[in-house]
Task: inverse folding
C-alpha cells in the first residue's frame, strides 16, 4: 500500500474527550474517529489491525473444532421474552419497533438466537457436541461509553456457543476454549491473565475472564503471590478468619456514647477520636429489587462488594438506599447510624465478627458509640463474606500466599451456562434411549475492537503506537527521505516491490513531505520495522533498518535487505 493513496488522517491535537492513551493515539494516528458517543469509524489502518486479529481468532477457533456462522444483528423480542431477558436486560438493550409495531432489539450477545437455531436444527445426541461462532458487530447502549474502542456502544465481538449432551463434555469444551483463548491472546502479542469471574447478565455458574494488564483498565483484579489463584475483584473470595480468642481476664470496657458533632464519615470521626479506620464498623443501607431495606456492616477500612451482598440476600439487584428513605424508615440520619438498636435486618461481613473496642454511629445525630464489643452488644442476622478483597489479604486457595491487586482490560470471557437457556427455550435432544433431554451449553466471547485499544495501552511510547508484529497493519514501512529524488525513489520502489514479492506486508511512504514529518508520522502509526532510504546510505550501498520498539538501527546492504527483513519477521513471529 502507498501512503499517498491511503486515508490516514493524522491529527496534531489530542481529542479533548480522550482520557486514555489508546483513545488519544488511535485518533491522532488516523485509525478511528467518533461519529456519535461510543460509535466509531474504522479507517483503513484500523480495519487492517481488526482483520489481523480476526484472522488469528478464526484460525484458533477453527483449529479448536468450532464452526463459523453468521446470525442476524436484529432479533425479535419473542426470543428474548422466552429466555426472560427482555425484562431483565435493562437499558443496555437497544430496542426498536418495525413498521408493523413488532418489538426488536439489536443483539448485545446472541444466546437467544443461537439457542433458537440449535433447537430448530439439532435433534439427536449424534449431532452433538457442536461449537458455533461468529465475528460480528454488537450493540450495547452503555451508560458510560468511554475510552475510545475500549467501551463503545457499537463494537466487534467474536462470540461462540457450544452445545453438549452432558456436563462433563461441556466442561471439556470450556477447557478447550480456555486453552484456545490463551493461544489467541499470546499470538496477538498481549500480556494477559485469566481470572475467575462473575457471570453477570449472561448467567451460568462458572466463568473466567481474560484480562490484559494495563494501568488504565476498568477492572480491578487480584492475584496470589504464592499460587495460580487470580480473580476479578468482584468475584474474589475473602477468607474469613475466626475472631480472636477472648481474653476473659480482660472484660470489655462499658459501651460509651461520645459526641461527634457534624462528623459523619469514617475519616472525619477517626480523625476526631484519634482512632484507626479498622476499628470502625460502617453501616450501609441497601434497597433490594424487592423493595426491602437492609443494613450491611463492614469494617471502616473495607468496602462492600455488592455482588456478594446480592448473593447473600438472594436478590437480583441492590442499590444504596437514598438518605430520605433511610431516615423515614429508621428515624436515623445516615452517618450516625450503627447496628445497636437499629430497626432493620442486618447482615455483617465476617471481619466484623468478634470486633472489640469498635466504633459505630449511635443512631442519634452528632453521637457515636465507642468500646463496642460485637458479641456483647449486637447480633446480626447473618455473617458472610461481603467485602471487596484488598492487597495483602490472605489467598483464599493456598496457605501462605497474599493477594496483590492490578488493573485489567477484559478482552475475553468464557462461561459455563448449563441448561439456563436450553430449559427456558426448550432446546432439547433425544438421547440413545430416545428420551428428550435439555442441551448443556457454554458461551465464549472476545472483544475484537477492544483488543485493538488494549494492544495500544500495552504497546506505545511518547511518540506513538508500537504494534506487536502479529497484529500490525503493516510489518514494514519503506521511507525514502526524499521521494522526489530519482535515485532514492527508484531504490524505494524496487525494495517495495521486492518485499511484496517476498510476502512481506509493506507500506511505502511515497509522500512529498519533509523527512521530519515522515519520521514523526511513522512513529505515530507504529509500524514495527522501518526502512529508511537516504542519499548518504545509498552512496555506501546501504539502507537503514530501524526497529520501532527499541529504536535500534542497523545499516544493511541493499542486496541483503529483503533477506534480513524476512528473517527478522520470522524471528519475531517465533520468539
Ligand atoms: P464489561 O464487563 O467490560 O462491560 P462484559 O463482561 O459485559 O464486559 P461480555 O458480555 O463478557 O462483556 O462480552 C464479551 C467481550 O466483549 C468482553 O470480554 C469484552 O472484551 C467485549 N466487550 C463487552 N462490552 C464491550 C464494549 N462496550 N465495548 C467494547 N468491547 C466490549
Ligand atoms: Mg465479560
Result:
Amino acid at each position: 500500500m502507498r501512503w499517498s493513496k491511503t486515508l490516514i488522517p493524522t491529527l496534531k491535537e489530542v481529542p479533548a474527550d480522550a482520557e486514555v492513551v489508546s483513545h488519544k493515539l488511535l485518533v491522532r494516528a488516523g485509525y478511528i474517529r467518533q461519529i456519535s458517543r461510543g460509535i466509531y469509524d474504522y479507517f483503513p489502518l484500523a480495519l487492517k489491525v481488526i482483520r489481523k486479529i480476526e484472522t488469528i481468532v478464526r484460525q484458533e477457533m477453527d483449529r479448536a473444532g468450532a464452526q463459523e456462522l453468521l446470525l442476524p444483528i436484529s432479533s425479535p423480542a419473542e426470543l428474548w421474552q422466552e429466555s426472560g431477558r427482555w425484562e431483565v436486560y435493562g437499558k443496555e438493550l437497544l430496542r426498536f419497533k418495525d413498521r408493523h409495531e413488532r418489538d426488536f432489539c439489536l443483539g448485545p450477545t446472541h444466546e437467544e438466537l443461537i439457542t433458537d437455531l440449535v433447537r430448530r436444527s439439532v435433534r439427536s445426541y449424534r449431532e452433538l457436541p457442536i461449537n458455533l461462532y461468529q465475528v460480528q458487530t454488537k450493540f450495547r447502549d452503555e451508560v458510560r461509553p468511554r475510552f475510545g474502542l475500549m467501551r463503545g456502544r457499537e463494537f466487534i465481538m467474536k462470540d461462540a456457543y457450544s452445545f453438549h449432551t452432558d456436563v462433563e463434555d461441556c466442561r471439556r469444551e470450556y477447557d478447550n476454549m480456555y486453552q484456545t483463548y490463551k493461544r489467541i491472546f499470546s499470538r496477538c502479542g498481549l500480556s494477559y491473565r485469566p481470572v475467575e469471574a462473575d457471570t453477570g447478565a449472561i448467567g451460568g455458574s462458572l466463568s473466567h475472564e481474560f484480562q490484559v494488564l494495563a494501568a488504565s483498565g476498568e477492572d480491578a483484579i487480584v492475584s496470589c503471590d504464592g499460587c495460580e489463584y487470580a480473580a476479578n475483584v468482584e468475584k474474589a473470595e475473602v477468607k474469613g478468619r475466626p475472631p480472636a480468642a477472648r481474653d476473659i481476664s480482660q472484660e470489655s470496657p462499658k459501651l460509651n456514647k461520645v459526641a461527634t458533632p457534624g462528623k459523619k464519615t469514617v475519616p472525619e470521626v477517626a480523625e476526631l477520636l484519634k482512632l484507626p479506620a479498622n476499628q470502625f464498623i460502617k453501616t450501609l443501607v441497601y434497597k433490594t429489587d424487592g423493595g426491602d431495606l437492609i443494613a450491611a456492616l463492614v469494617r471502616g477500612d473495607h468496602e462492600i462488594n455488592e455482588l456478594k451482598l446480592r448473593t447473600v440476600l438472594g436478590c437480583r439487584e441492590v442499590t444504596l438506599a437514598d438518605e430520605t428513605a433511610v431516615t423515614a424508615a429508621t428515624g436515623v440520619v445516615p452517618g450516625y447510624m450503627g447496628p445497636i438498636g437499629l430497626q432493620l435486618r442486618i447482615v455483617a461481613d465476617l471481619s466484623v465478627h468478634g470486633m472489640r473496642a469498635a466504633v459505630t454511629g449511635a443512631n442519634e445525630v452528632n453521637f457515636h458509640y465507642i468500646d463496642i464489643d460485637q458479641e456483647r452488644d449486637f447480633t446480626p442476622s447473618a455473617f458472610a463474606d461481603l467485602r471487596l478483597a484488598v492487597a495483602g489479604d490472605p489467598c483464599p486457595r493456598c496457605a501462605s500466599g497474599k493477594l496483590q491487586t492490578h488493573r485489567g482490560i477484559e478482552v475475553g470471557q468464557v462461561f459455563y451456562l448449563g441448561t439456563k437457556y436450553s430449559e427456558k427455550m426448550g432446546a432439547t435432544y433425544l438421547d440413545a434411549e430416545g428420551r428428550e433431554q435439555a442441551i448443556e451449553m457454554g458461551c465464549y466471547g472476545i472483544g475484537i475492537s477492544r483488543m485493538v485499544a488494549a494492544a495500544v495501552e500495552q504497546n506505545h511510547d511518547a511518540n506513538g503506537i508500537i504494534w506487536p508484529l502479529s497484529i500490525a497493519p503493516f510489518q514494514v514501512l519503506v521511507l525514502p527521505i526524499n521521494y522526489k529524488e530519482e535515485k532514492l525513489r527508484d531504490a524505494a520502489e524496487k525494495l517495495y516491490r521486492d518485499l511484496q514479492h517476498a510476502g512481506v506486508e509493506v507500506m511505502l511512504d511515497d509522500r512529498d513531505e519533509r523527512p521530519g514529518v515522515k519520521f514523526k508520522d511513522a512513529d505515530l502509526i507504529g509500524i514495527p520495522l522501518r526502512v529508511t532510504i537516504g542519499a548518504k546510505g545509498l552512496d555506501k550501498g546501504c539502507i537503514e533498518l530501524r526497529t520501532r520498539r527499541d529504536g535500534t538501527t542497523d545499516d544493511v546492504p541493499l542486496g541483503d535487505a529483503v533477506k534480513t527483513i524476512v528473517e527478522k519477521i520470522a524471528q519475531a513471529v517465533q520468539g
User: Anything to note?
Assistant: The first helix runs from residue 21 to 28. Residues 494 and 500 are 10 Å apart (CA to CA).
